[in-house]
Amino acid sequence: MVGNDTPIRQDSEDGPEPLDESKVNSISAAEQSLQGGQPDMTSEAEWSEDVEEETKPTFLELFYDLVFVVVLHKIATGLEEEESITRDTVWAYCLRVFMAWWTWHMTATWTNLCSYLTTEYHVLHYVAILLQGFGMALMSSAGTEGDNDLFLGFYLGTRIVNLIAWVYLVNQLTASQKLPQEMIDVLDGLVKVTSVFLLVESAVYIPAAVLAHAGSSEKSLSLWLAGVLFTLSIRTIGGWNHDKKTEEVKKVAKFKLDHLEERYGLLVIILLGEIVASSAAVSSKDGFWVYFKVFSAVVTAFTGFLLYFEALPKGRWNAQRVSNLASMNWTHCHFCVACCLAALGSGFARLMEEGDHHDEAHASSILLLCISSGLFLMFSAAFVYFGRDVPPGSHLAPPRLNHGQRTSIRCFCGALILLWGTIQGYEPTKSTLSDWKIEATCAVIPSVMFCSFVAERWGAQRVEQETIAGALLAANAHA
């Protein structure tokens, strides 16, 4: 990998000219992302980019983000169609969401690197994105648990398209001799990392697909889970190893951390909107309390927005700015949050479709709502923990509660919702649920989430007094 501290130059007819180092750093950052490393960071003042050059990839990113959300919604509808949600159903849903997220992540890396390509290579870029979007659509078409073999097959096909595009790009750049050997070596390393991931995935997911086709659902899911854990562990170990070798975070242009945060923030907003949209199937003949369920869905989505965007202290560093390991955990927790929000929307949709008929399916819906909302609080607590309230070199006052205390508040509220769901959602027989259990659950979930936000927001307020360093700095400025 090319270091960021050594200027790279290439010879020309007029003598040595400086090479656009941002191109090298852009590829280097993407390679770190695949291996588990954190893309390097820089201040806004040091970013110098051609806006016109970035326009097309940016709009393409937004388009592909929407494709990912649509696929995720399609996967989540499988939870709505099941009358009784079993353990295998939940595992299959989570694994499918991971596959969609991992495909989106790999394509996002590809899109980021294509920002520096010349016009003739953008055609290949668009074709690759189109084929991968088509592959994700095929993945979502295998919507039932019995179609796991088709889902895995479509996933591997989509990943192969991604690798072929990479290999073709590297070969074309090597033959054109437009780039120095250092950049070609970095691209070769990125292709090798992608190839290793694909080989391991093929060795695991092809047998899993065969077992699923043969009807061995439990063995297939176990093998599938092993492949997912391998991917997560390799990325986590890679982030830890990168932190061990790198004492300080280097600077890079092009790969903006703010841009990465915006993309994940957009995904969260759309998924929260899906929760509100799940309450659209309302009929007036279902009675007054159905509108209370609609209100519960809207407030839950709004509170989720507050917890994600407004509960943190101003001026803090998010996880991806702290360390590579924290960045990997931040990314992985977004997969978990997406999984929970999509399931939460499916839970509200089930309640709307079931109306006032309180049966075993309704009990499963209550359990799904409580588990998804409780786990959302717990996984999103990682965004609070893996951060830094007072960045190095800043003169910000510390908040009333440190990040560990605020994390504990959110996890405690999540545990309360899980406990409520375990008690209220479980029915030893198929006897009907009483009305108060359903309406109470719709009240408890947004109420506990809002209490968590209020407590965290109060704790995130910075102490009014200035730090000694800040006071001295202000005094010197006045002098």
Automatic annotation (TrEMBL):
Residues 1-50 are annotated as: Disordered. This is Low temperature requirement A. Keywords: Membrane, Transmembrane, Transmembrane helix. Residues 24-36 have a biased composition (Polar residues). The keyword Membrane applies. InterPro entries: Low_temperature_requirement_A. It comes from Cymbomonas tetramitiformis. The chain crosses the membrane at residues 123-144, 150-169, 190-215, 221-242, 263-282, 288-309, 330-349, 361-386. The keyword tRNA processing does not apply.
